[in-house]
Amino acid sequence: MQFTDSNPQNTPVNTLVIGAGSWGTALAIAAAQTGPVLLWSRHADQAEAINRQRHNPKYLQEITFPESLQATADKKAAIAFLQHGPDGSADISSPALIIFALPVKAMRQSIQAWLPLFKEAGLEHVPYVWTCKGFEEETALLPHEVIADVAPDSKQPNGVLSGPTFAKEVAQGLPVAITVAGLDPIVGERVIQAIHHKQTRVYYSKDIIGVEVGGAMKNVIALACGISDGLVLGNNARAALITRGLYEIRRLGLAMGGQAETFSGLTGLGDLVLTSTGDLSRNRQVGLALAKGQRLDEILATGLTAEGVRCARAALARANNLGVEMPITEVVCDILFNDVNSLESVAKLLAREVKSEDA
Fold first, then answer.
1. Which position among 133, 198, 218, 292 bears the catalytic label?
2. At a CB cut-off of 8 Å and minimum separation 6, what does 331 contact?
3. 139/236 Cα distance (integer angstroms)
4. Quick check: is 218 catalytic?
């Protein structure tokens, strides 16, 4: 798609990042390379420490913040930043972007809290994107479906930002390619204006469903790969899980209305390979721990959390409702929630009837 230049003077984008975790911090740092950024934290002491120490004391502590990045815990200050910029000189028509860098479990409440504030402030024209990957546990809804459920009448342009990324590498300024998906082209244009630069490439798609399914399900397959590696089943087994996992992701995505080509792109194959093989992957780390015999509650008690754990059961429920077969996801759910031994589960997976490769 060829974008129109909605920012012909290359005016810096005022970017508000909601959520000061590792991914919110990384995106704030990336966006601060091209324009002013305000990082919103729900903890006042964290925001104060960021401004004073010039780094996030809780996440990615080793990364120094650029001067164009400030933090706040004040929602009124966040709204004023979108309206008038960091120094109060911009007007309400100046280019701005909102990034919700929050886990799936926090999206419903956050959208309910923030969208009315944007509307009241006359900011409904400002596009927003979310970065969470998964299905909501209680409803088995994807993030865009949660938003539609919470704010069915909202006309504010929105989309999802996803792809093969580790927060630490983005914060370090290492090369990365990501996808933004939204039905309104302004979403893609604004994200590109805000964070696309020599080390960060942004690609645009309209396939919100495909991008979200790929982002959600790669975490589940990464858990399976971690379990396989923890059992020392070898590189061949991992390659088989990634390949068959991609078929599984594609089947579910197509059944939900996604586009086939999305699953061979950055948010499909790319994100799956990264999360299933990279040492920085929390989902892979949880799988490794499970294979060593640790209980899930013990793993989570250490602070190691992974979106794949939260969404696996919901994803399987959604697949069952659609009549989509998900053997790898079933095995992961057995290990996570049914106290089934990892080796027994792998044996169950390998004992499945022989089928053609495209099945």
1. 218
2. 224, 345, 346, 348, 349
3. 36
4. yes
Distance of CA 214 to the CA centre of its chain: 10
Q: Is the pLDDT of residue 87 over 90?
A: no
Q: Which residue has the tokens 């990264």?
A: 274
| Strand 176-181 with 158-162, pairing | antiparallel
- Nearest to 161, CA basis, from 179, 147, 143: 179
Instruction: Extract the tokens encoding 29.
Output: 């740092």
β 69-72/96-100 pair status: unpaired
- Residue whose structure tokens are 């000061």: 20
> Up-side HSE of residue 332: CA atoms within 13 Å toward CB?
32
Q: Which residues contact 224 (CB under 8 A, 6 or more apart)?
A: 241, 245, 287, 328, 331, 332
Write out 175-214 in H/E/C secondary structure: CEEEEEECCCHHHHHHHHHHHCECCEEEEEECCHHHHHHH
Dump pLDDT digits (tens) for 21-36.
Answer: 999 999 999 999 999 9
d(CA 75, CA 341): 47
d(C-alpha 55, C-alpha 37), whole Å: 14
**What is the distance between the alpha carbons of residues 160 and 323, in angstroms, rounded to a whole number?**
26
The Cα angle at residue 277 between residues 276 and 280, in degrees rounded to 5: 95
pLDDT at 303: 76
Which parts of 110-182 are beta strand (E)? 128-130, 158-162, 176-181
Q: How confident is the model at residue 89 (pLDDT cuts 50, 70, 90)?
A: confident
According to DSSP, residue 116 is labeled H
Task: Please tell me the pTM assigned to this model.
Answer: 0.93
pLDDT of residue 1: 46
* Dist CA 30 CA 61 (whole Å): 15
Q: Mean pLDDT throughout 201-217?
A: 97
Q: Which residues contact 63 (CB under 8 A, 6 or more apart)?
A: 25, 29, 55, 56, 171, 172
